[in-house]
Write a structure and sequence with these properties.
With about 450 residues, the protein is of the alpha/beta class. The chain has 3 domains: about 5-125, Rossmann fold (3-Layer(aba) Sandwich), CATH 3.40.50; about 155-385, tm_1862 like domain (pyruvate-formate lyase- activating enzyme, Alpha-Beta Horseshoe); about 390-450, OB fold (Dihydrolipoamide Acetyltransferase, E2P) (Beta Barrel). The protein is built from 13 helices and 19 strands. It has helices at about 15-30, 55-75, 85-90, 90-95, 115-125, 175, 185-195, 225-230, 250-260, 275-280, 290-300, 320-330, 360-385, and strands at about 5-10, 35, 45-50, 80-85, 105, 130, 155-160, 160, 180, 200-205, 240, 265-270, 305-315, 335-340, 390-395, 405-410, 420, 430-440, 445-450. The longest helix has 25 residues, at about 360-385. It is globular. Bound molecules: iron/sulfur cluster. Iron/sulfur cluster binds near residues 166, 168, 171 and 209.
Length: about 450
């Protein structure tokens, strides 16, 4: 083991796009000769890849950095490097809260993390401290190939673009990651082939807005063409679409969802709300009416559809009636898997200037209430799955001795959706057909039909 350049441990926080950033940084470090270790204690450098999206995620990032700095103080870690989405927009906060970090590398400068660590190693002491945060880098199209993967071997995230052109009033991501830029198709295809050659049989499409793909580089939306090409990779089994934007979903994409067997009838499409006045204040460019029409079109043309969505409650100006409208929408089962967030009043977001802000207690009351509604809808939906046979993949060991294998059906994305508990012991990464015999609410019990 050549430890000349030292050992590096990583903490990856935030969304799948941040996870890909961690994987590419790790891939770059490993190819340069750094030794990657899962152990923080004893590592020469710990890199924390932060999330800056919401106050809650920034708090989590600061706490994590704080823990690593404690290890440094105790001499169990030599250097602490902070990377990711917090560095660009929240540098002052980092300087104030974690002044003893050795380097700050913004999300858009992540390609430079290797030279920062190399300099740190060679100089023994970086001129306190390196802050790499170049605003022009917000226009870069990144190369996510040669990753060191952090996901289980059988699935991988495939990012197709960077940044976002939407102006949702509650969101700071465009100011962090810059304007939308599609990755070149051939680069994505080569990356997809690399991931499949590396054992991935499920590819999960991610972006800030996957459905805008091609609009900037080809002058028209070409996600459906790209997905059809990726689905053409022989060994690939599942292709899962995440982060669709309602107003950008095309008929061509819906057609492909209906007819391409590898493209799962699964679509993650954050709707955020269904009340037209609230959607207008959110600057979503959609209305309650256009949303319902889109969902009806999807349901009509994609019979095997599983729709995941996320919502925000307690947005400034949201009335009780508008909140109830959203509860009613969830109760009717328009979406199959739902995540709901309490509104977070972000100082760098446009919505920070809005009137009609609700007291925190009221926001949390609504959040608690709607989580119950979402859970009841989910449990009712899962109950209706009992008796059905589904395609699934094994993921590991479950805590249930009678159903010792944990798995995931085609209707469930990793980490965020429901899990299957399978009768019998199976190694991870097996593709099986299983009959659902019982619903436990979030989890489903299933018996394997054919290996
Ligand atoms: S689509 Fe809206 S919420 Fe999503 S990243 Fe873009 S601005 Fe933010």
């Amino acid at each position: 083991m050549n430890t000349a350049l030292g050992t590096v441990a990583f903490v990856s926080l935030g969304c799948p796009k941040n996870l890909i950033d961690s994987e590419t940084m790790l891939g770059g470090l490993a190819s340069e000769g750094f030794v990657i270790t899962p152990e923080y204690r004893g590592a020469d450098v710990v890199v924390i890849n932060t999330c800056g999206f919401l106050d809650a995620s920034r708090q989590e990032s600061l706490e994590t950095i704080g823990r690593m700095l404690e290890l440094k103080q105790r001499g169990e870690v030599k250097r602490v490097v902070v990377a990711g989405c917090m560095v660009g927009n929240y540098r002052d906060l980092l300087e104030r809260e974690v002044p003893h970090a050795d380097a700050l590398v913004s999300v858009n400068d992540r390609a430079q993390v290797t030279s920062v660590l190399r300099e740190l190693r060679q100089s023994g002491e970086l001129a306190r401290k390196a802050v790499i945060s170049d605003p022009d880098a917000r226009g870069t199209i990144y190369d996510d190939r040669r990753r060191l993967r952090l996901t289980p071997r059988h699935y991988a995230y495939l990012r197709i673009s960077e940044g976002c052109n939407h102006t949702c009033s509650f969101c700071v991501i465009p100011s962090i990651r810059g304007r939308f830029r599609s990755k070149p198709r051939d680069q994505i295809l080569q990356e997809a082939r690399e991931l499949v050659a590396d054992g991935a049989r499920e590819l999960i499409i991610v972006a800030q807005d996957s459905t805008y793909y091609g609009q900037d580089s080809e002058g028209r939306k070409t996600l459906h063409e790209l997905l059809a090409e990726v689905a053409g990779i022989p060994e690939l089994r599942w292709l899962r679409l995440m982060y669709a934007y309602p107003s950008q979903v095309t008929d061509e994409l819906i057609d492909l969802l209906a007819r391409e067997p590898k493209l799962l009838g699964y679509i993650d499409m954050p709707l955020q709300h269904v009340s037209t006045p609230v959607l207008a204040r959110m600057k979503r460019g959609t209305t309650g009416e256009t949303t319902l029409r889109l969902l009806e079109r999807l349901r009509a043309r994609v019979p095997r559809l599983t729709l995941r969505s996320t919502f925000i409650v307690g947005f400034p100006g949201e009335t009780e009636a508008q909140f109830e409208e959203l509860c009613g929408f969830l109760r009717q089962g328009y979406v199959d898997r739902a995540g709901v967030f309490p509104y977070s009043d972000e100082p760098q977001a446009q919505s920070f200037e809005l009137d009609g802000k609700l007291p925190e207690a009221e926001i949390m009351r609504r959040h608690g209430r709607i989580m119950e509604v979402a859970q009841q809808a989910l449990f009712a939906r899962n109950e209706r799955l009992v008796g059905q046979t589904v395609e699934c993949v094994t993921e590991g060991v479950s805590q249930d001795p009678k159903y010792p294998t944990e798995g995931r059906s085609a209707m469930d994305a990793p980490e965020i959706d429901c899990t299957l508990r399978l009768k019998g012991e199976f190694a991870p990464g097996q593709w099986l057909r299983a009959r659902i015999v019982r619903s436990l609410g979030f989890d489903l019990l299933a018996e394997v039909e054919r290996a």
